[in-house]
Design brief:
Strands 1-8-3-6 form a four-stranded antiparallel sheet. It has a four-stranded antiparallel sheet with strand order 2-7-4-5. The protein is built from eight helices and eleven strands. The chain is α+β, with helices and mostly antiparallel strands.
């Protein structure tokens, strides 16, 4: 198979050259000689909200960089209930299991309309062997993933219901504008925080009445954080 050259790799099914998050994705640091190692296309895929990107137990075929939208990682608890263990946002990598495991470890479901770049496992393996730049990027992503998993467990699974909801509100703030936070369906928030839907809704409504949050849409997804200190102090 003919290797993909730099121009066609950036121009192919995934328009990496004009990607708005190119600097944060895995291939940001690759150079001309690295693209000579690529023998498979990088696909640009879109999913509707609610669509399943991968299923737990499915053989790992590669990794996906999330370009837009949000996805949830869902695992089954010991009592058979689905539990959201983490939310991924633009720049995060889906399927880091490819580094060490033969199957995906969680269901990946779109919380919002989402677009991803799917990078075949053969490309990852080849580049990982041949260029230290990608290996370094993968290790950074792996470390960040583990650190965030620990943070989610520590911050979102302990304390009162209002404390957990407040921590999630703060954690979902945008990197570019920390005054804006993006939430999702209350049922999903409850699954993540181990709370009932009604409990989550009451907490969010309480924060709005207190003047700490300002709703920006009718769906209850976008909010302006008016008092981050008050939210952080909720016990």
């Amino acid at each position: 198979m003919i290797p993909i050259k730099t121009a066609s790799a950036w121009r192919g099914t995934a328009d990496c050259r004009h990607c708005g998050i190119r600097e944060s994705v895995l291939f940001a640091d690759l150079q001309e000689e690295d693209f000579a190692l690529i023998h498979a296309p990088i696909d640009d895929l879109s999913f509707d909200a609610g669509a399943t990107l991968v299923q737990a137990g499915e053989p790992v075929k590669g990794v996906m960089t999330l370009r837009t939208g949000m996805v949830k990682l869902v695992r089954m608890s010991s009592d058979g209930r689905p539990r959201i263990v983490r939310v991924l946002r633009p720049g995060d990598v889906i399927g880091l299991e490819a580094l060490a495991a033969p199957v995906y470890e969680a269901d990946v479901v779109a919380l919002t309309p989402a677009s991803v770049c799917r990078i075949p496992g053969t490309v990852i393996q080849r580049l990982n062997q041949e260029t230290p730049r990608l290996h370094h990027q993968l290790m950074q992503k792996w470390h960040r993933s583990l650190r965030e998993a620990d943070d989610w467990l520590a911050e979102l699974n302990f304390g009162s219901a209002q404390h957990r909801v407040a921590q999630l509100v703060l954690k979902m703030r945008g990197a570019g504008d920390p005054a804006l936070t993006t939430l999702f369906a209350r049922e999903d928030m409850g699954s993540m925080l181990d709370l009932k839907l009604e409990t989550v809704s009451r907490a969010v409504n309480h924060f709005v009445r207190q003047g700490w949050l300002q709703p920006l849409d009718r769906l209850g997804r976008q909010y302006r954080v008016l008092d981050a200190a008050a939210l952080a102090a909720v016990e």
